[in-house]
Amino acid sequence: MMTNWQTCSSDVKDFTFNIQKETQNILNNNLVGIYLHGSLAMGGFNPNKSDIDLLVVTKYPVNVEAKKELTQLFLNHSSQPYPVEISVLNESQLQTWQHPSPFDFHYGEDWREKYKNDFESFINEVPLTDPDLAAHITIMNHYGISLTGPPIDEIFPKIPQSDYKSSIVEDYNDCLENIEDNPVYCVLNLLRVYWYLKEEVISSKKEAGEWGLVALPEKFHPTIRKTVNEYKGVKEAHFNREELLAVRNYISDRVSRLND
Hints:
The protein contains 13 helices and seven strands. By secondary structure, it is an alpha+beta fold. It folds into two domains: 10-159, Beta Polymerase, domain 2; 162-259, no CATH class. The protein is 55% helix and 13% strand. Keywords: Antibiotic resistance, ATP-binding, Nucleotide-binding, Nucleotidyltransferase, Transferase. It catalyses: spectinomycin + ATP = 9-O-adenylylspectinomycin + diphosphate.
């Protein structure tokens, strides 16, 4: 069953509040706020599949010791049972916006092995940038929820449309290449980007899938319906190469026409 922050289970809320509390304890007086975005804010959160997406804002850059504590926190608690994706930015990085945006700390399950195998390469003073932050902050400005801290519109900048587009197109291009490896995410993400480029609608993956069942030709509906149902946790789907490439090529062709 898909939920949002208002309708999710007490287990999801308790887990999120515990992450909030532990993060506050580590950052202490440097913390400005902790904010929820992604599927749990927008709707479409599947407790068996979805990440809990957080952006954390600090007054000043996060020091190495705090980064080490944050890393240990998320290595221990993320995916127990809900995976966490979190980025920490300081106020200066938001106030002097640039794309791709610098950040002080990031954790996601795809970073777990990096931290376990090469800890020192990522926990240091060397600044990193993330093109995805333009998309995350745009979603935050439209759908985000403040768990603690000032209102969202007082903290996060309005992201230029060109930066948001650049951010989602980078992920879109990855999905063109990797649709066979991750069909559910990629089909829904291709639809989400296509819808935005066509009509400037900012949507969740769930909403994009439902739009695809209306907007795309009927011959693609069985594939899209399978992705939506698996994303919702209704039924595990099996895909063949031909159907995935057919959807990919159709969307790629339409997006290319929009960009001409």
